[in-house]
Structures are given as C-alpha cells and as structure tokens.
C-alpha cells in the first residue's frame, strides 16, 4: 500500500521507525523486535538505511519481510551521499522487485574521510528524488527539520531548499524529532506560507536514556526544553524510570498533536517493542 493513500484515508494513524542490525549476528533479535512492533498494527513501519555494509543490505530484506510476511506496509529509507548513482539505482531496482512501493529519500551524512560530492554523483536528496521518480511509480517521502537542518545557517534558506525538494516529487515529509510541539506548529505555519502543502508527519522520540539523548540532540541541533531537561536530570541515571518518564512525555506530545488536528504521527521506536506497546496502550481510546 502507498503511504500517501493511507494518509489520505483520514483517521488517526501511528507508524514506527525501526533500524536493521549492524551485523548478521544481530539479525534474529532485531526481527523478533520488529515482529512484536508489527503486532501493534501500525499504519506502516519505516526501516532506516546505513551508509554501506550490512545495514544497507538488510534494509531491503527487512522492509520486504515486514510487508510480505507481517502484512504491514513498509517504508524503506534510502540514502545517497555515500553511494554512486549506479549503487543507488541497484537498490531501487531491488525494492521494485520486492514490491516495496514506499521510499524515504535522504541524502544521509556527508562521508568524513572522502571527497564530497564526487563529480557526477549525488549532492542533495532532491537529486535522488528525481532519480527515484524516473525509476518507477514509488510513493516518496523525505526528511524535514522543524528547528532547521544542522548544516543550514538560516531557517528560511532551509525551507527554500525544502520547497525545491518537495517540488521534485515528494508525497509526504517526516520530521526530525523535537521535544516542544510549539516548534512544530511554528514550522508548519512557515512552510505552508511558502507553499509546501504535502502532509507532514511529526517524528516523536520516546527517550529511554538521558546520556544518549543529550548526545543525539547535540549532533542534530534539537533543543531540549527545560521541562524535558528536568526529567533527564532526575531520571537519566535510572533506565527504568527514564523509560517510564520518556513514554509519558512522548504520549503527552502525541495527545497534544492529535488534539491540534494532526492525524499521522511517526514514532522512533529504537527497536524497543515494549516502549512502542506502552505508548499504544496509553492511546488505546484515542487511536483505534
Ligand atoms: C525522518 C528522518 C529519517 C532519517 N533516516 C535516515 C536513515 O535512514 N539513514 C541515514 O543515514 N540518515 C537518516 N536521516 C538523517 C539524514 O540523512 C541527515 O539529516 C542528512 O544530514 C540530511 O539528509 P536530507 O535528506 O534531509 O538532505 P537534504 O534535503 O539534501 O538537505 C541537507 C542539507 O542541504 C541543504 N540543501 C538542500 N538542497 C540544497 C541546495 N540545492 N543547495 C544548497 N543547500 C541545499 C539543506 O538545506 C540541508 O541543510 C534521517 C533524518 C530524518 C529527519
């Protein structure tokens, strides 16, 4: 099923992101976690893509398993910064062969120890989006950043590039995590004003580790509001308490989003079925 069609159906929908194992040794336990997440009947499951190696190989395999065996639509992420156009084209063909209709098209991180961009190769996600469109009738998602992408000096410039990206053929956008919903509402206002009209799925991260989130937020430029910092300060060293508080905070964010008319929400599950299930339990009368 094309994700854009599910979005257009109306109703409140929750989806989850999972990441493939880095090594073949971790494969079985990751699949077990995904199977538990699939039992929560999300509207779809997205599968992240690493820069080369086992993670990228497993993205296609796992996205196919989710769709074919677990009967949940899958969204395969695909990055282009660390690959040649030929390598990317081969992955798109594999996705087509497996009947995967949904791709989240991303640039990915700029490779640290290599020249970027290589002549004739990808520089921005927008170029990848054009190529995916030329390869077939995929439903294409892309990333957006309510607080601005970390490399962008000005938010207005980032929104300008986002508009160019969407105009290349994006069906929907998913946001980077944020911990203050007013940042999302402000972002939506600004992008709608600039003529970006595609659906935007807020990405919500249930935080289960204080140290980890401080590191991720520093890298991605995500703001941690005072209310959230107090939680990390108080519970960050106690994994069980931090998980419970993280689930409560994420639930609170999701309920506020739904109350404000947002119908499709994407949750960064971090491959934790117990966390995904706890959120769905909290929403049992809200999401049916
Ligand atoms: C929902 C989501 C899922 C993600 N999944 C993955 C994943 O699976 N694997 C992974 O490795 N990473 C993933 N990422 C991270 C992502 O790859 C990085 O944030 C990356 O740095 C940017 O990717 P992008 O597709 O947004 O790039 P782009 O849209 O290309 O933008 C990157 C930067 O370039 C600027 N830019 C764009 N076009 C132009 C232009 N024409 N001229 C000048 N500047 C321009 C933008 O303003 C921005 O600052 C994900 C991010 C999100 C939000």
Which helices and strands appear, and what pairs or packs with what?
Blueprint: H1 3-8, E1 13-18, H2 27-38, E2 45-47, H3 53-68, E3 74-79, H4 85-97, E4 102-106, H5 125-135, E5 139-144, H6 155-167, E6 172-175, H7 181-193, E7 200-201, E8 203-204, H8 210-220, H9 226-235, H10 239-259, E9 264-268, H11 273-282
Parallel strand pairs: 1-2, 1-9, 2-3, 3-4, 4-5, 5-6, 6-7, 8-9
Bound molecules: flavin-adenine dinucleotide.
What do you see in this structure?
This protein has 288 residues and is α/β, with parallel strands linked by helices. The chain has a single domain (3-282), classed as TIM Barrel. 47% of the residues lie in helices and 14% in strands. The chain is built from eleven helices and nine strands. The chain has helices spanning 3-8, 27-38, 53-68, 85-97, 125-135, 155-167, 181-193, 210-220, 226-235, 239-259, 273-282; strands at 13-18, 45-47, 74-79, 102-106, 139-144, 172-175, 200-201, 203-204, 264-268. Strands 7-6-5-4-3-2-1-9-8 form a nine-stranded parallel β-sheet. Helix 9 runs antiparallel to helix 10 and helix 10 crosses helix 11 (273-282). It is globular, with a radius of gyration of 18 Å. The chain starts with a helix and ends in a 6-residue tail after the last helix. Residues 48-49, 51, 77, 79, 104, 106-109, 124-126, 143, 149, 151-152, 158, 161, 164-165, 174, 176, 203 line the site of flavin-adenine dinucleotide (FAD).
Mean pLDDT: 95
Q: What's the total number of strands?
A: 9
The small molecules bound here are: flavin-adenine dinucleotide
Strand content: 5-15%
Number of DSSP helices?
A: 11
Instruction: Supply Rg.
Output: 18 Å
**Order of strands in the sheet with the most strands?**
7-6-5-4-3-2-1-9-8
| N- and C-termini, Cα separation | 19 Å
Helix content: 40-55%
Count of all domains = 1
| CATH first level | Alpha Beta
Biggest sheet descriptor: 9 strands, parallel
Order of helices and strands: HEHEHEHEHEHEHEEHHHEH
Structural class: alpha/beta
CATH topology: TIM Barrel
Please name the CATH architecture: Alpha-Beta Barrel
Poorly predicted ranges (pLDDT <50, ≥5 residues)?
none
Q: Indicate the overall shape.
A: globular
């Amino acid at each position: 099923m094309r994700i854009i069609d599910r979005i257009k159906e109306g109703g409140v929908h929750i989806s989850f992101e999972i990441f493939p194992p880095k090594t073949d040794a971790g494969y079985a336990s990751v699949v077990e976690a995904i199977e538990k997440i699939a039992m929560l009947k999300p509207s779809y499951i997205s599968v992240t893509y690493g820069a080369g190696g086992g993670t990228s190989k497993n993205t296609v395999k796992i996205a196919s398993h989710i769709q074919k065996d677990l009967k949940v639509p899958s969204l395969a992420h695909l990055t282009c910064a660390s690959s040649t156009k030929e390598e990317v084209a081969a992955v798109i063909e594999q996705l087509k062969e497996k009947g995967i209709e949904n791709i989240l098209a991303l640039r990915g991180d700029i490779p640290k120890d290599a020249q970027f961009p290589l002549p004739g190769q990808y520089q921005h996600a927008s170029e990848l989006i054009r190529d995916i469109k030329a390869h077939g009738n995929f439903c294409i998602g892309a990333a957006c950043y309510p607080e601005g992408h970390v490399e962008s000096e000005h938010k207005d410039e980032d929104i300008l590039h986002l508009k160019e990206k969407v105009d290349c053929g994006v069906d929907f956008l998913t946001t980077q995590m944020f911990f203050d919903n007013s940042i999302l509402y402000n972002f939506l206002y600004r992008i709608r004003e600039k003529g970006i009209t595609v659906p935007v799925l807020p990405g919500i991260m249930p935080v289960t580790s204080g140290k980890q989130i401080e590191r991720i937020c520093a890298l991605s430029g995500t703001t941690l509001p005072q209310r959230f910092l107090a939680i990390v300060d108080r519970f960050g060293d106690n994994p069980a308490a931090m998980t419970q508080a993280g689930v409560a905070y994420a639930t609170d964010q999701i309920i506020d989003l739904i109350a404000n008319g947002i119908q499709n929400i994407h949750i960064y599950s971090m491959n934790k079925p117990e966390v995904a299930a706890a959120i769905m339990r909290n929403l049992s009368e809200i999401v049916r």
